[in-house]
Design brief:
The complex is a heterodimer of chains A (633) and B (350). Chain A is an alpha/beta fold. Chain A has four domains: 5-218, 3-Layer(aba) Sandwich (Pyruvate-ferredoxin Oxidoreductase, domain 3), CATH 3.40.920.10; 231-413, Thiamin diphosphate (ThDP)-binding fold, Pyr/PP domains (Rossmann fold, 3-Layer(aba) Sandwich); 432-503, no CATH class; 509-632, 3-Layer(aba) Sandwich (Rossmann fold), CATH 3.40.50. In chain A, 38% of the residues lie in helices and 19% in strands. In chain A, the strands form five sheets. Chain A has a seven-stranded mixed β-sheet, sandwiched between helices. The longest helix of chain A is centred in the last third of the chain and has 21 residues, at 612-632. With 350 residues, chain B is an alpha/beta fold. Chain B has one domain: 3-Layer(aba) Sandwich (Rossmann fold). Chain B is built from twelve helices and 13 strands. In chain B, the strands form three sheets. In chain B, strands 2-1-3-4-8-7-13-9 form an eight-stranded mixed β-sheet, sandwiched between helices. In chain B, β7 (183-188), α7 and β8 (208-214) form a beta-alpha-beta unit. The chains are: A alpha/beta (633), B alpha/beta (350). β17 of chain A pairs parallel with β2 (80-83) of chain B.
Chain lengths: 633, 350
Amino acid sequence: MSKNTVNSDFSTREKSQGKAQEKPLINEFVVRFANTNGTGSASANNMFAKAILRMGIPVSAKNIFPSNIQGMPTWYEVRISEKNYLGRRGGKSEMIVAMNAQSIDDDINSVKSGGYLLYDSSRALLDSQIRTGINYLGIPISNICLKEYSDPRQRQLFKNVIYVGALAALLSMDFTLLKGLVRDQFKGKEKLVTPNIYALELGYQYANEHFICPLAIKVESRDLVNNRILVDGNTGTGLGAVFGGATVVGWYPITPSTSVIEKFASYCNRLRIDPASGKKNYAIVQVEDELAAIGVAIGAGWNGARAFTATSGPGVSLMTEFLGLAYFTEIPFVLVNVQRSGPSTGMPTRTQQSDILACAYASHGDTKQVLLFPDSPSECFELGSQAFDIADQLQTPVIIMSDLDLGMNDHLTKEFTWQDDKAYQKGKVLSAEQLDEVEVFGRYLDVDDDGICYRTLPGTHPDKGAYFNRGTSRNHFAGYTEKSADYVDNMDRLTKKFINAINFLPEPEIKQQKVTAQLGLIFFGTTSHPIAEAVEQLKEQGLMVDSLRIKAFPFHQNIEPFIEEHSVNNRQVFVIEQNRDAQMKSLLVNELQIDPNKLASILNFDGLPVTSHFIVQAVLAQLSANQENKKTG
Amino acid sequence: MSFIKSKFQHPRLPVNDLGLTYRDYEGALSTLCAGCGHDSLTSAIIQACHELSIQPHKIAKISGIGCSSKAPNYFLNKAHGFNSVHGRMPSVATGANLANQDLLYLAMSGDGDSASIGFGQFAHVVRRQLNMVYMVANNGVYGLTKGQLAATADKGVKNKAGDLSLFNDIDLCVMALQLGASFVARSFSGDKQQLVPLIKAAMSHKGFAFIDIISPCVTFNNHAGSTRSYDYVHDHITTGAVADFVPVKTEITSSCHSGDSEDICLHDGSIMRIQKLNEEYDSTNASQAIIDIERNKKAGKILTGLFYLEPTASDFHEVNNTNSTPLNKLSQDALCPGNRVLSGINDSFR
C-alpha cells in the first residue's frame, strides 16, 4: 500500500526496538486527536472515549474546537485515569493522533518524550518533522481509504474510524466491546453498522501487522466507573429544566449555550406531549435577539410559568437592563450563562469564568443577582432543576453560571437523580381563596418580615390582588412614588431578601484534612476538576491542603471563617479562577469585607480548562515568593 | 404619583351583562397633561371593555416606557399591568401570552417605544402572530423627555423647539401590513365613534391586532406646522370605510352585503360591519391597503379606519400546537417525567 520507505522504516524501528516508554503506563495517560473540523472526527473520537468508559476506566474528553464550520484545526483530548484525575493534566501527551497537516508541526512538538505520534503516512513526513525521542506510528490511512472506498465522503469519514481501530490494537482496547459500541451508536441505522465495523477492523489489522501491539501505554479493563455517566453539562442543564417544570423558553442562538435549549427541546418533544391531545406542554420561541429572549422569560415568570433562557457573555451584556427590571420588580426566572472567553466576541469557542462580576451585579443601579455555580453535568441537572424552586421562592432571577468546558465537553459524572416525592416549591403566590381571606393585599408588603412579599398572578381574582408591575419606584401597594422614605424602605427590603437568599442556596463544599493544612484553596465551577490531582501533588511536596468550593452567591456564612482560619499563622488562602481580573476574589473581598491581602490569586485565562500542573506551579511559585519577601522584608 | 379616584358612583350608572358599570373599568387618576390624546384613548378602551362585558381581571395590560406606556395605569384597575422596559413590551407580552393563553393581552406603546428603540421587537411580535391587541399612541414626539422628534414624525415637520425632522418617517401600519399582521387599523384619539368599534373588534379578533392611534401631544406637538396637532388631524383625516362592531349577542337585523355594507364574522362570532366610502377599499387586501395609505399621505391626508382584517387568522399557540390548558396551570405530574424515565435517560450516557 505505502510506497513510503521512510515511514515503513519508522514502523520497523518501532517494531524492532519496542521499548518506547521506560515502564508501561496502564490506564494513566492522555491521547490527543488533532483533526480538521467538519470531517466527522468528533463522533469517532467520542466512540474512542466511550469505549474506554465501557471498559470501566475513568475517562474525560475535551473538545478544543474553532469558531468555524469546516477546515480549521480542532483537537480532542482524552484523558484516561484510573486514579480518577479527570481535569486537564497539562503538559505534553503520551499519544497524539495527528490527522491534520495544518497543525502537525505543533502536534509533533506536543508529544511527550518517549510518547507516540500516530499519523497518516500516505504522504511522507518532512525531515524537519522528525523528532528524536518520540515514536512514529505511520499508517497510510488515506491510501487505505482510497483503495477501500469509492465515495469521497466515505473516504473522509472512515479515516477516523480506521485510526480508532488502530488505537484499539495499539492500546489493547477490548475490540469486541468497541464493535458493540458501533452497533449501539447506529441503532436504527443498521446499514451503517457493517461498514463502520469493517473500517475499525482495517485499522485494527494494520496496527497488529505492522507494530508490536500493545504499546507500552495501554488500557486494562477495570470496574472503576460504577454508576457514573459520560455526558455534557448542557444536557444536564436542559434536562434539569424539563424536570424542574420549565414550560416557557425564549432564546437566541449563541455558542456555547445553544445546546442547552436544543436538549431541552428534544427532551420536551419526547416527554412533554400531552397524552390526551398530542399537544405540547411547553412553548419554545427562538426570538430576534437576547433582549427579547430574556423579555419572554420575564413575561412568563410574571404570569406564573416557570421560564428560562440560555446565553453566553455577549447575550448577558444585552440582557442586563432586563435583569435589573426583574430584580427590582421581583420576577422569578432562570438564566443559564454558559461562559466563554471575553471580552466582546473574545474567543467564542474557548472557556472562561469571566462573567462573575457582570452577573453578580448585573444592571445599573444597586442590583445584586443570585448565582449558582455547578461544577459537573450532574450538578447542572440538580441545580438546573432546583434553580426554578429558588427563583420562585425568592421571586428573583437565578443565574446558572456554567462555562464552555462544562457545557459542551463530556464529563464523567454522577448519574442524574430525582426524588419523585419532592414537590415543586412555588413560593408565595396567593390563590383566589387566599386573597379572599387577606384583609389588605400589598404586593410589596413584607408580611413575614423575611424580605419576600406575596405575589398574585394575573387573572386570579375578580376584585383583589391586581397590581401594576413597574420598573419605577413604588410603595407597598405597587403605586408609583417618588417619596424617598418609600424608595429606601423598598431598597432595604430587597437587601434583606438577598441576605435571606443564603437559606435557599446550596452550601459550599468544604474538604478539610485531618491535620492542620498550610493551604486553603477556594474555587468554583469547572476549576474544581483538576483540584484533587493538584492537592495530591502538593501533598507530595509536603503541603497539606484544605479546599472550599463555592456553589452560590450570595456567599454562605461558612466562607468567611474558612478564609480567616486559613490565612493566619503562615497559612495561605488561594482563590483559583479562570479569568484575568480575579473576579471571584473581588466579589469575596467586596461582599465579605475581607482584607484583600489574605487572598492570593491563581488565574488561568488562556481559554483552555485550567490544569493541575498550572495550579501546582502557581502555588509553589507564590509560596517561594512569600519566602523571598520575608527574607528581604 | 398615582392618585386614587373618588369611589363615588352615580346610582343609576348603566350596568353591562356582568353587572359592572363603566367605573368598574377605570384606573388611577391620569397624571398626563390636560387634553392629552392618550386620555381619550384610555376612555375609549374603558368604554370598549365595558360594552363588551369583559371581566376586567381577565385582561393583562402590558406596556413599555413613555407617556403612552404610563396610560395602562389609568384604566382597568382590576387587571394586572406590566410597565416593562423601553421598547421591550412585545417580548414581555410574548412570554406572558405563552404562559397563559386564556387572558386578553392589551398592550400600549408609543412611537418612540415601537418605531425607534423597540422597532425590532415590534416587527418580530407581528411575525410571531401573537394573539394580542397592540395599540400605539402616536403623537410624533417624545413627550416624557420634552418634545424631541419621533421616527413617526413626517419628514420636514418641525417640533416645538424648531428642530426639523430630517429623515424619512416610519409608518407602523404599513410595517404591520408587510409583516403579516392579521388586523391593522388606524384611528384618531379624538374620534371615539371610529375608535371604540375598532378596539372592540381588535379585542374580539384572534391573532395579532394592531391599531395605530394618532394621539396629539397638547404640550409638545400641537403647534402650527405640526402634522400631529388636533387641528391638523381634524382637517386632514379621511377614511376608506366606516366600520361598526356588532357584538355576538346582538341580533343581526340586516343580512350580509346589504346595500354598500359588508359583514365580516370574527373569531368569537361577533361581526365587523363595514361601510365602504371608497370604491377601491378592500379589507382583505393588505397590499391595496399599503397603496391607499401611501397615496393618501402623498395627497396630504391621513387615512384611518380598518385597513386589513383576516378573520380566520391563526396565532402563536395554534402554530406551536400548545396544549389548551394554560402552561402556568399545568401540574407537576404533567411537567415532571419522574425518576423511572430518568434512569432510562441515564442509561443512554453509559
